[in-house]
Amino acid sequence: MTSLKRPTANDQSHLNLSSKVYVRSTKSGKVQKIVREVYLRQDIPCSSQICSNCRPPANAAGQVSPPVLSDKPAGTKAFPQGHYLVPDTNALLNAMDLFEQSSAFFDVIILQTVLEELRNRSLPLYNRLIGLTKSEDKRFYVFFNEFRLETYVAREQDESINDRNDRAVRQAVQWYNMHLAQVKSKRLPTVVMLTDDKGNIEKAKQDKVPAVTLRDYVGGLEDADRLLDMIAESRERGISRDKKAADFLYPEYFTMSKMMTGVKGGMLHQGIFNVSPYNYLEGSIKVPAFPKALLILGRDNINRAVDGDVVVVEVLPKDQWKEPSTKIIEEEAITKNENADGDEGEDLVTEKERRALQEEVKKTHTSSSEGRPQPTAKVVGIIKRNWRQYVGHIDQSSVGSAAKSGRKQDTVFLIPMDKKVPKIKLRTRQVGELLGKRILVTIDAWDRESRHPVGHFVRSLGELETKAAETEALLLEHDVQYRPFPKTVLDCLPKEGHDWKVPASTDDPGWKGREDLRGLLICSIDPVGCQDIDDALHARALPNGNFEVGVHIADVSHFVKPSNAMDNEASIRGTTVYLVDKRIDMLPMLLGTDLCSLKPYVERYAFSVLWELNQSADIVNVRFTKSVIKSREAFSYEQAQIRIDDDSQQDDLTKGMRTLLMLSKKLKQKRMDAGALSLSSPEVKVQMESETSDPIDVKTKELLDTNSLVEEFMLLANISVAGKIYEAFPQTAILRRHAAPPKTNFDELANQLKVKRGLELHVDSSRAVADSLDACRDPKEPFFNTLIRIMATRCMMSAEYFCAGTQAYPEFRHYGLASEIYTHFTSPIRRYADLCAHRQLAAAIDYEPMHPSVRSRGKLEAVCKNINVRHRNAQLAGRASIAYYVGQSLKGRVAEEEGFVMKIFSNGFVILVPRFGIEGLIRLRDLAETEPESVYDAENYTLKLSGSRDLTVELFQKVVVRISDAKDEATGKRGAKMELVKVI
Amino acid sequence: MATTTLLSPAELAYLHSTLSLTPPIRPDGRTATQFRPLTAETGILPGTNGSARICFADGTEAIVGVKAEVEKTRLSPYQDRNGRRQGSRRKGPAKSKQGKPEDSEDSGEEEDGELQDAEVKGSNDWVEISVEIPGYRDDDSSTVFLGTMLSEALLADGDFTRRLWINRRFHWKLYIDIILISPPLSYPLPLLSLTSHLALLSTRLPKLRSEADEDPMFDDDWAASTFIYPQTGEGSKTSATTRPPITLLVMAVGDNIIFDPSKEELAVADSALAVSVGEGQALQEKAAEEGTMEVDASGVDGKPGRALRLLSVRTIDPPSRLTPPGVPNSVNASAWGQGGAASKNPDARQAETGDVAGVWKAPRGGMKPAVLGAMVAKVLEKGGVADEVLDGLQGVELA
User: Fold this and answer.
1) Quick one: which of A410, A592, A850, A933 could link to A403 by a disulfide (CB 3.0–4.6 Å)?
2) pTM of the model as a whole
3) For the domain bounded by B9-85+113-324+360-394, which CATH number is listed?
């Protein structure tokens, strides 16, 4: 009988066929044995420019991709002939930052084995590596060693997968060296394996495979100290540090299967871990099972979770339930004198922390029945770490005096800018240089025996408080993509560049389906100095007494075609980010500020919404069309206001603007009647000196009628478009909703108002909220109403983009605008959601067929998810930028300003200063030399001080504070520092 | 599979008489207990959890593939979420089947550890066997009968399904696909049984990584998977301590007991029997006696005695019992004596019904209990055929 068995890899008669066997577990719980056949070939090139034997591969079009690896690679002391590097998986895992350096690490061969292993271990690192292999100047080549006959390695009996992969790497290195040796060349580069694994190195030595450890290799490079710091800390020492169980500081995590079973069974809960901004030892987690967030208190219960991680928690027994803390606890203050070196013998909870916790407990016990304890939970496992790179600075006090000058490796603490992130332990050789710098680090691990997470240095952003470093820090912290647009994106731009014009002939394909609206008297109204003009308006009286009103939006979708490189980049960026002195564009400048921008006096493509409105601003009919327009003027809000108010101006353009203003007021009234909220956030504008762009003054933003004019028509356009695209695409329309906040969100504010002012806050509907907010007035204090609005805004949910198919129609509602349906359509230059809406609207009016990517719900959901995050980050970055510049504008000045108490803790309070739009924390210990005695009355929101300073601080109270500019030692941020002058 | 042979009554009679000699003379020269030579290999279907193929020298050939799926255990209304029995804490039937009837009064005081053990029990619908014989529908009675006999042997003592238990909430569901790929040249039961045996021996299940009653999670490394029938020993000399059952076909001619009959031999059998034997102890017993087992194993000059257990016995209607072609209706029981001509002519009738030397006549009547007992005893005999077959199969490399 001839055997029917598949040949095994060891079978010499079937050299080119092998198979890969593994077990796949699907999400639905199926477990399958998977067998993949592997056909081995001999035509996979080595891709070295030296090699003449390998034929470079050509694609279907016959284009040959040239060899990647240089024929004269750089040499080192050990390899004077030059070398190609072959890193193994551990090397990449531990030191990806090194490979991204521009000073070293060129000509690298990435083996398929390594690439696949990396993808299984860490997707972000994998994506970074893929990015590297695409970069032309780094010369990274992916060699498919698993498919090449000579480098394929079959797994041996009882060999672990890791050992097999290591062997495959060694085999590939060996083959490369032999392969290159066939070339007659004097200067033959060595192919070197780069690894961190001792066993691997030893085996390589036995097999005479050139290999070097990561540390030895980097040690031989220039600038070794800086580079050495970039190697991940945790794995470096390997598993030699087997500690006794008693040394573990944190409880062990549950196994993944245990967590999954628990979550499915409803015994455990999964959610995103959030740290309180005021107390680093207090976290909360919102889980689907409960209406309110669960509290997580103390280091033990937080159990190594970092803000943003997806964690699984277990609810603690009822006797451990607590009130949320009323105390400000900053990591800086409590763990100040910790020694970064010493972990041994250190308790998990330090004495000071324990004391702080005791006070908490006391607090809970003494408080009356009012202060009901809330359910608490503890973290039992982590589903997904959301560690990113963190910006921070080195804690001066953690640096030994000798270390500042010496070259020896030192362990220091990095204090992240983000107060929610714990201190990061860092080992570095360049303490002296890094002190006083903003630096970027990555967390590598947080083991059970380590009190703090361990990380490694990535790069330095520059001196603390320099504008460049701080701006970059801010962008990094908010995950804003600020790198210049890559070439592939720029290739998508029109070839004509700035000379691009609307084709003169209306027969041109660009004119197809477009209406010629060049005759209309259109103008744009924007903030001063606006370059990316998204929108323009016009209005004219119709013979029947109604008005024709048009909103014309830049036709960005004409230039950005779906799924090309530019579209992908824009969808990742999601939005343009506005900083005080800088704008990070979503689309390349050429489009944003020129070709798309509806500049005055030139013809531009537009997407127009045209209404017929009657005298009371009701919509008689609406239509949408692609068009060509010519804006007559670009006004600033002020200019427009002046022109409207100037009775001597009687031209048609001004008359049109007056019509618009008249209609906008009616629209606004209607909206208010429907229950739209007028919310508030402290907004200020930083004035810059034009030459040095140093901030000189801060002004609160003025709101003119013209602001509201533009706003009303944009809202109207958005609502009309939302209706249209929803009608056309009930499953995929991209919309924006603002969920009604749960009533419990307002509990605290309502209680505060009731106790302090005897005011009622009705929260049954947005209309009720709007009305009761209107009623919240203090005749003596006009700002009081704004203060309440600011606080109310913080109780709301944030609005979000979504795909129509993911929600039921009643959920579409925009709470704040009191509109049934809403989308973003009017700013496609700076928001990606608007661009999607444009494409959908174009398809809805049969202007062009729908591109598959705009039709696929899965893809759109991913887009929504991303732009929601980006949108939020952009807002935060913008605010952080303003805060920074407010601080800068105060430099060297001391200002006394009025402020209001927004929040009271038992050992401090938060004050909002409307003049600068900033909030500041005043701690009791800052009030006097010795910390005054205090009695905190939680029910009346009052803090009575006695002893070194007699004072009573109440919520909503008006105070005078002295604001000066100071560096916050904790975060290294320069910001406004407040001192209480007096209570009014 | 009762294929009729093309032998004449005279040839059949001759065959019958040679097989009745002592010792019997078989057409292919085998001894009474000798098996047909076979070749076997395992692991021929890479996508399955276990597979095997066996070829008999007469050209019949079978392939068996075993696939496993994770399935949620359906809970009976008497069990709570964790699969524990509610109300009375009586043990499941698995234990009482072992011949240890439990005093239900005492069982209330059982300790948890033992309860756990009792809960590891399987259910017969965790195994699905399908048999395919070329030229026969899968709902043909003979195909169904074959399948039933094979599953009966496998499920007889509940030991096998217990191996499929993952935790209280999940179990493996096993699909055993048995395919005869050659035409059925002889009654394929032994072939199918041996092939299934090998396939099950080589069946491996992914290694469980989750604990207790969690949703099961498995190691994605196939090399880490474990055999359903655990292997001991090293290298190529591995063997299972317990092994799947085998079903042997035995027939009797006169007082002779003949193993592994060919098609022709079966055509003259007085009676035929399918005997299923299992080897080794059930899981539970093994656990209890683990200590002593090892001592035993090394004691008897390296070759441990095989503990054979009878699992089931089925009589099979051999083709010899079917009415051969050319038999007049008058003597054909199934024709209800409707043969017209013969009934009118008593002479002719005598000529047709009477025993004539050298002319084959189908045997009538049931199997004698003594013969049946002798056949079973012969199978279970130490160093007998079952032992020999199992030894032979042990030599097949498991891949």
Assistant:
1) A410
2) 0.67
3) 3.30.230.70
